[in-house]
Amino acid sequence: MPLIILILLVILLTVLIVGFIFLFAFLLPAISQLKKTLADLELTSAEVRLLAQELKKTAADLQLKLQMADQILVKGKKVVEGAGEISGFIQKNIIHKSVGLLAFLPAVKFGWKLIKKIKGGKENE
Fold first, then answer.
1. C-alpha separations of 106 from 36, 40, 100, 102, 112 in Å
2. pLDDT for 46-102, tens place per residue?
3. Are 100 and 88 in contact (CB under 8 A)?
């Protein structure tokens, strides 16, 4: 019986030794690496917070500029509508009413040339 206890103690001691070797060989470097990764993560988190603040500021500036652009577009639309109304007014009231007179322009031009020709000859053409 004491031999079995001795064998069990040797096995137990071997397991403990292998466990400590495993602990020092694998777990401690892994824990150290995790600490380094955590420190890098904290720095990255701070950078992300800073970038998020800058992004919010940029978005607010962009929103303001878009609002100004909208105001410019609204004013431009009013100008174009006004120009369209003026164009319609000119077309209806001036051009349509003077079409009859405009038809006589070629005849007036021909008559003017004829008068100049009669008065001064060919040198004034």
1. 94, 88, 12, 8, 10
2. 999 999 999 999 999 999 999 999 999 999 999 999 999 999 888 888 777 777 777
3. no
**What gap in Å lies between CA 71 and CA 81, rounded to an integer?**
15
Separation of alpha carbons 64 and 85, rounded Å? 32
Residue type, 44: T
Nearest to 125 by CA among 106, 105, 114, 111: 114
pTM of the model: 0.46
Helix extents (H) in 23-104: 28-89, 96-102
Distance, in Å, from the CA atom of 123 to the CA atom of 21, rounded to the nearest integer, reads 121
